[in-house]
Amino acid sequence: MDASILTNLFHIGPDAQTSVSLLEKVVRPVLVYLFLVIGLRLAGKRELAQLNAFDLVVLLTLSNTVQNAIIGADNSLLGGVIGATTLLVFNFIVVRFAFTHPRVERFIQGDADLLMRNGTVIAERLRAEGVTVGELEAAARRQGFPSLRDVDKAILEASGGVTFVAKKPRAHEARHQDLMKRLDDLSVEMKAIHAKLEDTRP
């Protein structure tokens, strides 16, 4: 194997091609990680929810934008592995720390936000989160709701997901549904009895 290939893959020392030291390779991912956590926290939960194509474009280009900030000019395999390992280890530490410190987790992730209550859209909360009614309707359809008329509550979770709670049928509607179900069951039984009588005829 060509010695230059091994050099390009595994050499991490400072030279003309790879001017990032080992310590810097560890510090850079940590700083970028903290920047992204704070930036996404300030940008709001809708970025994580990816409610439209613009949010997806932002997240995709964001990852490409910070790539060089993480590994610098180093294109070696070992340099990339060091950067990725640093991100994974640091994320594990942050997650474990947040798990044992609920206040820290709440500060990082924020709180869930109620977008609909009792079937009514809370317009001021939509404006605060930068969510349009159309985006909320689209999110409801993705979860099987024909329209917002079928939704009792809509909650924008701290993780960016939107949770919908269906309306409960009123008492007379529940009785009507129960009666219709019994009629359907009775119709099925009558058809079964009729089929048996037909079979027993000579």
Can you characterise this structure?
65% of the residues lie in helices and 9% in strands. The protein has 202 residues and is α+β, with helices and mostly antiparallel strands. It folds into 3 domains: 3-109, no CATH class; 113-166, 2-Layer Sandwich (CRO Repressor), CATH 3.30.240; 171-202. It has a 4-stranded antiparallel β-sheet. Strand 1 and strand 2 (120-121) form a beta hairpin. Mean pLDDT is 78; it is low at 14-18.
Structure, briefly:
Helix content is 65%, strand content 9%. The protein contains ten helices and four strands. Residues 14-18 have low confidence and may be disordered.
Task: Give a quick set of tags describing it.
202 residues, alpha+beta, CRO Repressor, 65% helix
Low-pLDDT segments, ≥5 res: 14-18
Cα(first) to Cα(last) distance is: 89 Å
Instruction: Kindly state the percentage of residues in helix.
Output: 55-70%
Number of domains: 3
Strand order of the largest sheet: 2-1-3-4
The SSE order reads HHHHHHHEEHHEEH
Q: Topology of this protein?
A:
Layout (H helix, E strand, L loop, with lengths): L2 H8 L11 H22 L1 H5 L3 H13 L1 H5 L5 H24 L1 H8 L3 E5 L2 E2 L1 H7 L3 H10 L8 E6 L5 E5 L4 H30 L2
Antiparallel strand pairs: 1-2, 1-3, 3-4
